[in-house]
Amino acid sequence: MVGGEVAKQAGQQWLASLRPSPRHAQWHWATPQAQLVLTTGNVADILRFYRRVHGLNQTALGELLGYDKTYISALELGKRVLEDVGSRRRVCEALRLPPHVLGITDPTDTDHRAMLQFGESTVRLAEIARQSGHASEAVSELWPLVARLEARVDDGHTESDVLRLLARARVGLGAALGNVLPEERLATAAHWTAKSLEVAGYFGDPGMTSYALRMHGNELRKANLRGAAVLRLCRAAATAPNTAARADALPLLARAAGALGNGELFDRVMREADVLLDHVDHTSVFNPYSMHEIRLRGLVATGRTGTAMRLLEQSPAPTTIVAPQWRVIELITVAHVQLLADDHSGAARSLDTATSEAMTQRLPHQLQRIIRTAGKRLPTQHATAAQLLQRIRSELAA
Predict the structure, then answer these.
(1) DSSP string covering 326-381
(2) Residue 57, helix vs strand vs coil
(3) Contact between residue 115 and residue 146 where contact means Cβ atoms under 8 Å apart
(4) pTM of the model
(5) Residue 4 gets which letter from DSSP?
(6) Could you give the angle at the alpha carbon of 146 between the alpha carbons of 140 and 148, nearest 5°?
(7) By the 8 A CB rule, do 145 and 124 touch?
(8) How many angstroms separate the Cα of 78 from the Cα of each of 42, 48, 54, 172?
(9) Sequence-separated (6 or more) residues with CB below 8 Å from residue 132
(10) What is the pLDDT of residues 12-23, one digit of tens each?
(11) pLDDT digits (tens, 9 = 90+) for 22-53
(12) Is the pLDDT of residue 136 over 50?
């Protein structure tokens, strides 16, 4: 009796070993080749594909599905069909397929497809909210979506549209967190953007990969991982599928190159960006206003303060396309250059405006930039920004 129980347990363990992990299964069903197979709904094609990618013979697949080898062979040859709903549902559960692939109307699957449609809208609206100066609202919208999508992925019931949506949602969440978290917690933002890279790279989609690299590189820069940021952003520019996507990567690469003190790379990127400004539609990041701020900061960071001072008054007027946080970013950079030029009153005015806007938009990282910029030379601005930063930190802790 004991020997029989041991044999039974061993058999169950062997059977469990046949089932690929949810993570393993998700990638195979997400490939373009798998999508072609799944769209046919043909059981024979699906079974053959599953066996091939998981290295199973017909006997092993039969053990997984609860059928013998002969029946699996008949299904793959089209001599038998899965006519009843119960059998088709069992195959879907065993192979971790959404039920609708085999024509089953399943309430949970219907809810899942509705979630995908809702999720697409959530990601788009969250991006608009972030760029409009409402990053906290973007975090509130994206976090539940990411959690739900990750739970779905952990269950192994995934398709390419699920993983693509999850990658975009993770990027959006990381970028939004990068606005609302103080500097000592910015690694959290980089963590979420990094989680999108594996999915993006797997699909081999240059646009998706470039986007994920671009956003991750920017969060690395903000977390002071400057060398890693430059590497990611160089890859983002190199893999960009078109000129517009490359233009989106250039401002962030220029900022990272300047922060790293790489004047040669900074100048080369800025020259290319200047050319593209006349040929590519402007965005919330790639526009004359933001590029002027990036140029000022990069010149100072690479030891060319005099040139930055001469360019100080040449800032283009912000337009509606410029994200509100860029106005704060630009004011702080201008204040820094004004202090280098000994214009303390001008710097104080710039920082006062920046402080007010940073608090309105809930931008702790920018308040920390204000504190550093003000230093001992502008004690009033330093104290005000420090007080407001402490208020935000207390709210985050609560």
Answers:
(1) HHHHHHHHHHHHHHHTT-HHHHHHHHHHHHHHHHHTT-HHHHHHHHHHHTTTSHHH
(2) coil
(3) no
(4) 0.74
(5) H
(6) 110
(7) no
(8) 9, 12, 21, 45
(9) 323, 324
(10) 444 444 444 444
(11) 444 445 665 667 778 888 888 999 999 888 88
(12) yes
